[in-house]
Design brief:
- With 319 residues, the protein is α/β, with parallel strands linked by helices.
- It is built from 11 helices and 10 strands.
- The protein has 2 domains: 135 residues, Rossmann fold, CATH 3.40.50; 160 residues, Glycogen Phosphorylase B (Rossmann fold), CATH 3.40.50.2000.
- The strands form 2 sheets. The chain has a 5-stranded parallel sheet with strand order 3-2-1-4-5, with helices on both faces. A 5-stranded parallel sheet has the order 7-6-8-9-10, with helices on both faces.
- Helix 1 runs parallel beside helix 4 and helix 8 crosses helix 9.
């Protein structure tokens, strides 16, 4: 059993490598995902985790009241192993009273945990912290061989229809949850033109909040594909991502979706910390604005990004 506070879409996508590592560590186990609030693993992202989670239990409200500390037993199925992913000590104490055979938690510096990792200091990234919980259980996840994510076959077919075979496709995801995290659209457009000049086809991935850019993109990148509509789900983005040769994204949900799909990703960072928020991808390349003298995203030069894209497509191509 794994306990979380809640899972919004961005949280859920960031936790996918943890789920894959957990299934790798316990291939035969029945895995329950228990949330105090709502979880996208019960709704939007449910198709992705069909082979990773056996049951999702939402809205348990565990930790919402001090009375949880007085209950003799929480109203949950019995588990051999309970992994607590949050660090709020009263909630962890309530979970510890639940009576699982083994309780693992990083709360209070691992003092409440029955098992502890070899290295207990708090890691910078959320994913690193969650993988540390798996390691505390005695497992050693092989991040290069994680179980695959499941995507509905109809989505793969639709992605093939939207992105036909031809020139190598390079994804450009110019949006982010906050515009301060966005490399200027002009940078993405200049990159798209440079790719087109080299016989590569830009695929511009616009989320619901970036549809206002569609007209400008169509005008300035006439050969670009814009396969995502405002009503498409995150799973559609992942299905499309599987057809890309490489992609460029800001620190954003789209970047995590591209990484989760296994796409070679160049990830752009400025005001946010890559150490904490970088998506999980074995071939990830991070470009920081700070390396060019400023925390502002505009400091990242187009040529620096282009070089990394060409290198991802074919090592040595950029030289």
């Amino acid at each position: 059993m794994v306990f979380v506070g809640r899972d919004l879409t961005g949280d859920g996508v960031m936790k996918l490598p943890f789920l894959r590592a957990l299934r790798q560590a316990y291939p035969e186990a029945r895995i329950l995902w228990v949330a105090a609030g709502r979880s996208v693993f019960a709704t939007t992202l449910r198709p992705l985790i069909a082979n990773l989670i056996d049951e999702v239990i939402e809205d348990t409200a565990i930790g919402s009241s001090w009375r949880d500390l007085l209950r003799s037993r929480l109203a949950l199925p019995r588990a051999d192993l309970l992994i607590d992913t949050q660090r709020h000590v009263p909630t962890s104490l309530a979970l510890r009273r639940y009576g699982a055979r083994v309780f693992v938690s990083a709360a209070a510096g691992w003092l409440l945990s029955a098992r502890r990792p070899a290295e207990r200091s708090k890691r910078a990234s959320m994913l690193g912290q969650m993988l540390q919980l798996v390691e505390a259980c005695g497992a050693a996840p092989d991040l290069s061989r994680l179980p695959p994510l499941a995507l509905p076959a109809d989505l793969d077919a639709e992605a093939e229809a939207r992105l036909p075979a031809g020139s190598p496709l390079v994804g450009l995801a110019p949006g982010a949850g906050g515009r301060h995290k966005c490399w200027p659209l002009a940078g993405f457009l200049a990159l798209g033109r440079a790719l087109s000049e080299r016989g590569l086809r830009p695929v511009v991935l616009l989320g619901p909040d970036e549809q206002e850019w569609r007209g400008q993109v169509e005008e300035e990148l006439p050969d670009a594909l814009l396969p995502i509509g405002a009503a498409d789900s995150p799973l559609m983005t992942m299905a499309l991502a599987r057809r890309l040769a490489a992609a460029v994204a800001n620190d954003s949900g789209a970047g995590h979706l591209l990484a989760a799909a296994g796409t070679k990703l160049i990830s752009l960072f400025g005001p946010t910390a890559a150490e904490k928020f970088a998506p999980f991808s074995p071939g990830l390349v991070i470009i920081r604005a700070q390396d060019f003298g400023s925390a502002e995203m505009a400091a990242i030069p187009v040529n620096a990004v282009l070089t990394q894209v060409l290198e991802a497509l074919s090592p040595g191509l950029a030289r």
